[in-house]
Amino acid sequence: MSRLMMGLVGMLAAPMALASKWNMPVGVTETSREVYDLHMLIFWICVVIGVGVFGVMFYSVFAHRKSKGAKPADFHESTTVEIIWTVIPFVILIAMAIPAAGTLMRMEDVSGSEMTVKITGYQWLWEYEYLDSDVHFYSRLAPSSDAARQLDSGIDPATVDNYLLEVDNRLVLPVDTKIRFLLTANDVLHAWWVPDLALKKDAVPGFVREIWTKIDEPGVYRGQCAELCGRDHGFMPIVVEALPKDEYEQWVASYGSESMTDAVVDAGTPAATAPTTGPGALYTDKESAVDSDDSEASAETSGETEVAQADASSKPAAADTASGDISKATLMADGEKVYAQNCAACHQPSGKGMEMANFPALIGSPIVTGDPATQIKQVLKGKAAMPPFAYLTDQQIASVVTYTRNSWGNDSGVVQPAAVKAQR
Ligand code: HEC
Ligand SMILES: [Cu+2]
């Protein structure tokens, strides 16, 4: 029997000793290495117990089988045996809990953090706010993956680099810096998970939770929203780009000057150096909507962004720079996309709603055909089971409201972004 055990252990040891693609990653932080070591320690404890218990069991069944004339013993209640099989597992559990508790406590200890990033989960994107600087952007599935994932897109996902694991704006972070994350969500549960950093925590609406990391090596580390229940959690990946400190400082400096003021983005620049948070992006910065006090200037800016960006298809068309008003055709075209992404799950692409689930039809709805202010308020603030959509930009809300007011036989006029802005 001992030869059998040796054989089994030997067979497993060689491949498992390496961090193979079947195993969890060793990662690039002290915590991730600790977590990996704990995982391996406990894995081997389980292997030894498993082999021991099943070994004895199979050996007993085989060696003392009835056909060999074995006679079952008929003893009852052995206090000694019961004490042994209580004490041994207890000791094993304590032996596993001691190192695990130490690691858990270190994972919870955010003291001495040098910077803080607030992470907010939305359906279906992440928002990153660097609380020590002006950097603030949304990060969502890269257009290349998004296009390929559409039904009948005709694009083979195998041809898309990092399919479903690429974003438009990466979370750029410095190495060798203790970074605290404040984690929350704005609608439903999400879960921020980056295996190489050994970070995984639920983002819970109404709660702010803390996690931290200190990355040792520059590089790109990919993760995903690990929340299970919900339509599109699988389509809101996370990409962390760790830069050497000086490059990170440069990135922060260039972020302020390029994207916040000019919003001119070179289409060829990798996401890390070009945070595309200009008004051209589909999910734009809240601030850029709020900031646009002189709408003339911001309309011009978004016009430039539009020209500069490669992927115009997934973004709303630019404002009409001459008047500040956006044409009905543009609003309708953008609105259709915003509706498909945000509203159709409940109100259905047909606008007929879902009677069974109490999602009202928008066709002929008194709210859709009535005073636009009521409808804008409902989209901004939500109502009962309908979530608030205030994180959409003025233009996106104006587009989707215009779209619902002029589709499926509705004919109730155009709403401009200014009207939405006025109601914020
Ligand atoms: C999670 C499901 C859900 C989503 C997503 C959703 N809605 Fe709703 N919507 C509802 C529910 C539920 C109501 C009824 C609220 C009430 O009056 O109690 C409603 C009501 C409405 C109404 C009023 C209809 C009426 O006659 O009462 C409008 C207009 C509307 N939604 C527009 C939108 C738009 C535009 C979007 C996308 C930006 C959207 N909704 C996304 C669930 C949803
Ligand atoms: Cu999610």
Topology:
Elements lengths: L1 H16 L12 H34 L15 H30 L6 E8 L2 E6 L5 E4 L3 H7 L21 E4 L4 E7 L4 E5 L4 E5 L5 E5 L5 E7 L12 E6 L1 H18 L23 H6 L3 H14 L19 H15 L1 H4 L18 H4 L2 H10 L12 H12 L11 H6 L2
Parallel strand pairs: 1-5, 4-10
Antiparallel strand pairs: 1-2, 2-3, 5-8, 6-7, 6-9, 9-10
Bound molecules: heme C and copper (II) ion.
Task: Describe the 3D structure.
This protein has 424 residues and is an alpha+beta fold. 42% of the residues lie in helices and 13% in strands. A 5-stranded mixed sheet has the order 3-2-1-5-8, with no helix packed on it. Strands 4-10-9-6-7 form a 5-stranded mixed sheet. A hairpin with a 4-residue loop joins strand 6 and strand 7. Helix 2 packs antiparallel against helix 3. The radius of gyration is 28 Å and the shape is elongated. It starts with a helix and ends with a helix. About 15% of the residues have low confidence.
Strand content: 5-15%
* Secondary structure tally: strands: 10
The structure class reads: alpha+beta
* Overall structural domain count: 3
Task: Supply database-style keywords.
Helix Hairpins; Immunoglobulin-like; Cytochrome Bc1 Complex, Chain D, domain 2; 424 residues; five-stranded mixed beta sheet; binds copper (II) ion; single chain; 42% helix; alpha+beta; binds heme C
